[in-house]
Amino acid sequence: MLESRIQFRYFFDRKNVVDAVGKMKVKALKKGGFAVMQATRRSITKQGMAKPKLKVEGKYPDMKLGELVNNPRITERERKSVVKRLREVQFPEHSRPGQPPFTHTGMFRNHILFHWDPVAESVVVGQAMPQGDWLARLHEFGGSQKVQAWVYVPQRPGRYSPIIRFKRAGAKMQNTSKWQPTRIGEFRRYPPRPYMRPALEAKVRDGTIVNQFRLGGM
Q1: 76-110 pLDDT, tens per residue?
Q2: Domain locations in the chain?
Q3: Whole-angstrom distance, CA of residue 150 vs CA of residue 162
Q4: pLDDT of 162-184, one tens digit each?
């Protein structure tokens, strides 16, 4: 939280000065919050479905990645890019402990917002994803979480290697027609992957926030 307390003395037009400085403080805090929000978002690397669509996906918008792999009309280079993207989706990687987390769908990254609180006269920057506060705390500070295994159920006949995903206990996969829950559950410990504090500290170090007050939020 940033606080700004200013005493005004010896001004003939005190009310006008207070009003003007108050507006500048609001602008400065909002721009500082925006800068921290942008820095936080940029620190979170996109993976899998969060990445921009491949060019070949634009050529065949009605086909999914799994279907594109077997499309005889795409080039070998396009096929390799599809296989690489498909692996990222099916087997999502995690960032190294101590580094900002990855985002695999884009939701976590895109829901980092800033908000001006007129009562506290401060700007709050953080995760605004619905029911995502637990994940935000887990990434920032680390901790333990109970997870449950889900198994992918292919819609087509044939032999497939099992795909297992772990979700937070009580949460469901988006497509429950293709994923079925199992009785496999466990507690997992997650190391801290801070992303909010490093972004704030970076904007303090490079003078961005201080300069907003010097410039009056301009």
Answers
A1: 999 999 999 999 988 889 999 999 999 999 999 99
A2: 143-190
A3: 10
A4: 788 888 888 888 777 788 899 99
Q: In the structure encoding, which two tokens stand for residue 168, read together?
A: 């937070």
Tens digit of each residue's pLDDT (9 = 90 or more) over 19-46:
655 788 888 888 999 999 999 999 999 9
In sequence order, what are the beta bridge partners of 123?
Answer: 116
CA angle 87–90–91, rounded 5-degree value? 75
Taking CA atoms, 107 is separated from 111, 197, 215, in Å, by 6, 20, 34
